[in-house]
Design a protein that fits this description.
By secondary structure, this protein is of the alpha/beta class. About 35% of the residues lie in helices and about 15% in strands.
């Protein structure tokens, strides 16, 4: 069977990618931070990793892939940031999130998903809600809304690493807690990939 060509945007260290079957996919990962890209490459040596702006890469290369996963930066949309307004200066929400949703909806012929946090405002485009994340996609995402995303701020690095199925102990000068909390849980990444994969498989056989 032909491998599925996957574009993994804003890849960070690859939380969503962790459980994907290497025998079924050919992955190109895009990450702007060289340090995060290095960790990703060490975890997934067979993936092609490109250090560049994911938003621009999507615009220029979207039609080369069968499946696109995008996880744009979430801080300006986060409920937590809005709740802690006294600690955070007000900012405009980063609308690249909705630019990408509309772009994929309008131009991409494969399967796609855009992931982000539960926002402090009512979403401008209705998402699926799955394990305390928002997902926009052109295939059904079916499952429980509950998840571990909101497990609290007191969990240890070890607890988070167990949940996210990664060991960052050898890496220095990185914010491990922030990286771990922002990662998509591997079980969720696999479940959503499989929801799309059944549709893609039928098209590629």
């Amino acid at each position: 069977m032909k491998k599925i060509k996957v574009l993994n945007l804003y890849a960070c260290v690859g939380g969503n990618r962790t459980r994907w079957d290497n025998n079924k996919i050919d992955v190109t990962a895009i990450e702007l931070c060289p340090k995060m890209a290095t960790i990703y490459k060490e975890r997934f040596p067979n993936d092609k990793v490109i250090v560049c702006d994911a938003h621009q890469y999507l615009l220029e290369n979207f039609n080369k892939f069968d499946f696109i996963w995008s996880s744009p930066p979430c801080p300006t949309h986060s409920t937590v940031r809005k709740v802690n307004i006294n600690q955070n200066k007000p900012v405009f929400p980063d609308m690249k999130l909705y630019e990408e949703i509309l772009f994929l909806k309008g131009y991409f012929k494969g399967k796609w998903v855009v992931e982000n946090v539960i926002s402090w405002y009512d979403p401008l485009i209705k998402p699926y809600e799955y394990q305390k994340h928002y997902y926009w996609s052109n295939f059904p995402i079916i499952g429980k809304k509950e998840g571990n995303r909101g497990m609290g701020n007191n969990e240890s690095i070890e607890e988070l690493q167990n949940l996210k199925e990664i060991d960052l102990s050898k890496y220095k000068k990185i914010d491990k807690r922030k990286i771990l909390r922002n990662m998509v849980e591997p079980k969720a990444g696999l479940a959503i990939f499989n929801m799309a994969f059944n549709n893609i498989q039928k098209r590629l056989i």
